[in-house]
Amino acid sequence: MAVSEEESSSSSSSSSNYKSRSPPHYLAKSVLRGTVVLQVLPGHFRSPSSNDVVFGKETSIELVIIDDDGVVQSVCEQPLFGIIKDIAVLRWNGNRHQQSLQMQGRDALAIISDSGKLSILTFCSEMHRFSPLSQTQLSSPGNSRHQIGRMLTIDSNGYFIAVSAYEFQVAFFKISMSSGNDIIEKRISYPSETEGDTNTSGLVSSIGGTIWSMCFISNDLRQSYKEHNPVLAILLSRRDSVVTELLLLEWDIEEDNAHVLSQYSDAGSLAHNITEVPGLYGFAFLFRVGDILLMDLRDAHNPCCVFRTSLCSLSTAVEELNDAEESCKVHSVEEECIFDVAASALLELGDIHKDKDDDPMNVDSECGNVNSTSCHVCSWSWEPENVKNPRMIFSVDSGELYMVEIYSDSSGPKVNLSDCLYKGLPSKALLWVEGGLVAAFVEMGDGMVLQLEEGRLLYKNPIQNIAPILDMSVVDYIDEKHDQMFACCGMAPEGSLRIIQNGISVEKLLKTPPIYHGVTGTWTIKMKVTDSYHALLVLSFVEETRVLSVGVSFTDVTDSVGFRPDVCTLACGLVGDGLLVQIYQKAVILCLPTTGVHPEGIPLSSPVCSSWVADNMNISLGAVGHNVIIVATSNPCLLYILGVRFLSAYRYEIYQLYHVQLQNELSCISIPEKHSILKPSTPHSSCPDSTFSVPVDIGNTFVIGTHKPSVEVISFIPDKGIKVVAIGTISLTNTMGTTISGCIPQDIRLVLVDRLYVLSGLRNGMLLRFDWPSTSMMSSFESTLQKPCSGLSVPPSIAHTNRNSSGPVSSERMKENCPVYLQLIAVRRIGITPAFLIPLTDSLDADIITLSDRPWLLQTARHSLMYTSISFQPSTHATPVCSAECPNGVMFVAENSLHLVEMVQSKRLNVQKFPLGGTPRKVLFHNESRLLLVMRNDLSSDSYSSDVCYVDPLSGSILSSFKLDPGETGKCMELVKVGHEHVLVIGTSLSVGPAMMPSGEAESSQGRLIVLSLEHRQHSDADSMTHGSKASSSSQRTSPFRDVTGYVAEQLSNSSMCSSPDENNFDGIKLEETEAWSIKLCYSTKLSGMVLAVCPYLDRYFLASAGSVFYVCGFPNDNYQRVRRLAVARTRFMIRTLTAHFTRIAVGDCRDGILFFSYHEDARKLEQLYCDPVQRLVADCMLMDADTAVVSDRKGSVAVLSRPSHVEDNASPESNLTLNCSFYMGEIAMSISKGSLLYKLPADDAFRGCDVANTVFNVSCNSILISTLLGSIISFVPLSREEYEILEAVQARLVVHPLTAPILGNDHNEFRSRESAVTVPRILDGDMLAQFLELTSMQQEAVLSLPLGSPKTVMLSLKSSPPPITANQVVRILERVHYALN
């Protein structure tokens, strides 16, 4: 297990216990995947008609849709376990998709990656994610400069693919037209190994330079596919030339060779990109610095320029140019760091103007401030489906967006350049989608969706991007059961403070006082089946029912509806237009509400009601559907099916259609809405327009749960009676073989998304999914009917006879009436309290809120059972509330209060943004003031560029600030305890330029150490202390919201969108109005070297570094106006980080890695104890305890190091730390902190005896959170040795199983072990293990049945063969560890 806090409480106990402690084991799980979008691609990936968009994010891909309002909605996102080099869309056109059953007319993705393979991916509807269709080896993994695998392009017809190296090499691939499994039919490389440097025509045949860009030049449409030889245009920069040249290369398919057709170069500006003009065959745009050339390449032997568009005529007086270039400078890199795609676009034109020795970790560097006077195109996108008059929108490096249109006149093609359409930051990627929407992505801030209207681009919606995350602080969430993270995100001028929370975001609108005790149920009802909005909200209590109107204000209308107010309602709903039904213990009431409730009501003074009563029996439960009412009794066990018929004007009656005897008592009933069947699938469906057979007539079907326990699908036809269509038996056991108790269904739903299945929530907090069996299983079952013991000998809960049936049953009728036995494909535990299922809409494919210990959103379109936490507190009841003012509302009942929230499913990230200006560099949470302290750099003020400010965490407003001197840049800050108070210690730089030399040694520079006091004064203001409530006494029963409506309306304007009214104050006092906090200078001194790190030490000292020196400093007599340097130590290279735990000090420098020091107070000396076993470019470091350090490097790895097991007294500075485990992320971790965004789940009594559950609930104090430059947040969760060994064996099988192996063809073990020795143990990959939960039970068993040690399986370093692993055992660990971090 990971070391606990108690074990590290003293150095003596640490030394004595260290020998007996096992090394720590961790599982790394992505809490939030990177938000940097490097590529954006449109296509029809889910179906031939779906308009999808894929975001390429270096280590993951995300499938999204952009709706008509410009809102980006995520469909799915999956990790790649590799790094994307380039990505393109392979169009599967109509003339070929009929021949491929695999593609079914859908587009595919072509990706080249660090695996050295060309991967063709297709969207798998069953798994709801992309899966590999084919993989072609291009080169050895990693890709050197001369191996192909750097750049990718596909011709517009989808017939050919070209892949290039960084230099010298190009490969052609021909796509197969046959229906076989081989996608690649033929390939050829150029130049071949036997080809010389020149050919007979005198043209240079070898690609002797760096390939900057390439594209195919389409052939004439009149030319057939077989006659076409592809022509590739390559933009080349030769080593001995100062200009780029255009090379046209042809692949002669019949001769099976490639040769150069022509070369084109111009002594003018530097060309950097080329793109084909869609629809205008043989033409291409050549982008150069300062202009755009329209090239005529129809005669590939004689290329020529037919039109030149100058960019120099564009407006040069751009106000935001400086800020835009400043925001991009973080991506300039050292040559040694080109591995990081986001920071190392080797051929990115913007890098030409930057210092190649820039440090990617030095986000405050001054060397990127030189403005470029050139103007070049940095991104572009063509108008979709427009080939007659091609139009393109492009962004220039100064941030303007323009449009060009190509037209023809008598003299040939011409280009028309528009005026500026929009002004902002430079776009690194653009996408023009249908409906005139344009998605623009910038490097260091949020992207945006723009609408093209009347020659202008208008802002519609943001596309959130929180990268880079420069610092973070995890704080207990106010009034909730989980934490939230405050993060410094982005760069000037887009710098912001982000509040990051777990799960799906909700916008809190209303909250009542906690006066609603004993709520037993909540429902919302429409007045007509076809209504878009709900009309009524029904609240049931133990001995009371209240009905509220839904609208701007919730008004009690119980008397006008007709429901009995003095009973507990079991169920209610709409049975027909204007006809409402209330079911309670004694009767069923049919009500016709008046017009006072709704305009569709009856024009009478009071409602009209009729009732139906069971004969001397109490109703136990019921359900209301369209034209049908179903109720059940428990003693005796009967099921009644009721109908409604018209008698006269405003008079209806309830009558009995059928009743049957039950063999088992019912626990729940659900009737699918008939009109929901006609609704289209949700955008998140795997195949929005797919057609599939449904095994039952849903319009005549309902589902029940029984005490048997079982779930059953029942068909009811008035003329034929009822029939059990399908049965799912519930019989669950734990790992000990003991039957799990409490498996009675609490709630049940029928779901139709690509297939029909049954969901059931159990009373013990478990969630089950039943699917119809496959055809083979059905046939096997039917064969058993010929045996004497038929399936009817074990009857279902409902007998197969009704009151109209009589006589013997024939064998044919027996076979016809025999139900299908459903297949249990997934079991999940989401809590220990009963699991309720609440669909968000009436549609059968609607996502479902699942309530147990806390709320989840179950994604019905996903394979198996996949659900995401909702960022809201545990609730007992919930119901959707749809109104004109709140179309996506949900009413939760939590802690005796009613909460109206709005689900923000379209919000891809649960992140709230507070723009701060400049670059927020550091953030701390000040407990005394409950405010945030933020260090900002790169401010636009003339008098200062850095400051430290107080920020309100609720509104984002800046309350006070301390400004640094002109030319001074803030580098670090920490809160340090002095006596009973805290002061803020700041380190700055007074020098311009880099902090260190290329060798890693510190530059000659100066910094300043500053001590600030945090002071506050209280003042009394009666107005600020009071907030009135507007109560209404217009009726005897008042709305539960009426007491807070005025309060909410007043407070919401001053609060954040994600905050409830109660969160705007603490203990009823608004901080910003009652307490004024200020920052005051107490002490400052200059040091020789930039002060890059400070750290509190032993509650009475602090550490500060300056260059390659660090000091132990103290405050004499607790006087924070004086600072004394008590000890000093020096390292060989620039010190990047300082961290301490008890007496241990860990120093991270830019070359030697982590060094352990100890401070001797008596002698006032610092002593080096241990050093890093390898050279390491430290990015950040944190001590878990006195013996264990977690360190990230600038190559994308995280490692856990600890002191060796020998006695500390014998240690020497030459002693190496032990590398316990490592994990390669592929992203630079900027910040490491202790803690987690963990939800605390209640302990499960049923499994307390199992070893696998003993350590999960300690993760909150031993977990590690890491944030990266690409915007990822990764949690490292500690595991016990037993858990680690189980999951290690599962991971070894998952990485080779076809359903879960890395889709880019990477060797998973090689990928995660980069930058460390092969013998170093690995941190488990939580993203790989999470795929196990996405599999069905049968698929999970298939994965676990893979033998370890086979040629295709990774061997585990286990001394003996492990005991058999069960699926339940693995699922239980992953549920508790993985989903707790959901």
From TrEMBL:
Domain RSE1/DDB1/CPSF1 second beta-propeller: 518-903
Signal peptide stretch: none
Cellular localization per UniProt: Nucleus
The keyword Nucleus appears for this protein: yes
GO molecular function (one): nucleic acid binding
Region called Disordered, residue ranges: 1-23
Record's GO cellular component terms: nucleus
Domain of life: Eukaryota
Domain annotation RSE1/DDB1/CPSF1 first beta-propeller: ranges: 37-462
Pfam family of the protein (one): Beta-prop_RSE1_1st
Ranges of residues in domain RSE1/DDB1/CPSF1 C-terminal: 1076-1333
Keyword Nucleus: yes
Keywords: Nucleus
Protein name: DNA damage-binding protein 1
Origin species: Daucus carota subsp. sativus (Carrot)
